Amino acid sequence: MTSRPPIARATPAPAHRGRSSPPERYYVGRRPDRCAVFVVSRTELEPLAHLSYQSDVAFDWGRLTEGALELAFAILAHTTQSQPTDLVSQAFCGEVVARLGRAGFVLSDGDVALWLLTAFCEDASRDGPGLDGSVGLHRRAGRIRSWLRRT
């Protein structure tokens, strides 16, 4: 036995071995003189690229227009780094982009990813797809609207 008190040593925290997730990005739309949509992250601010999905009409939101469909396609393409299908673009436009506030909006890429994960899932209260093959898009619209009101 020694008369010295025990010495506590700090041990380094274990290194995180998993992939680090990229910082969250936000899509920010505003209407000063004309519609402008930006991609914002901790380190960058850049305009969202207009990809001319079906036309060169300017981005729009808050109602179902050609510009809203162009914005829906651009946001989905930017978030997924791939070309979304017509069905996905149209559903995202109708359920999300057309319901964004007319004055401006903030939408995270996490919100877009969550919508993509749940967009075409079967409604739990149904045994299967409807006769027309639909998967409950209309029933889910109410839940999406309430989700948009909270954001």
Task: Describe the structure in your own words.
- The protein has four helices and four strands, in the order βββααβαα.
- The chain has 151 residues and is of the alpha+beta class.
- The chain has one domain (26-120, 136-150).
- A four-stranded antiparallel beta sheet has the order 3-2-1-4.
- β1 (26-30) and β2 (36-40) form a beta hairpin.
- The protein is globular.
Fraction of residues in H or I helices: 25-40%
Unreliable stretches (pLDDT < 50, length at least 5) are 124-139
Rough outline: globular
Overall average pLDDT:
78
Structural class: alpha+beta
How much is the radius of gyration in Å? 22 Å
The number of helical segments is: 4
**Quaternary form:** single chain
Strand order of the largest sheet: 3-2-1-4
Number of strands: 4
Order of helices and strands: EEEHHEHH
Query: How much beta, percentage-wise?
Result: 5-15%
- Distance separating the two termini: 63 Å
Largest sheet: 4 strands, antiparallel
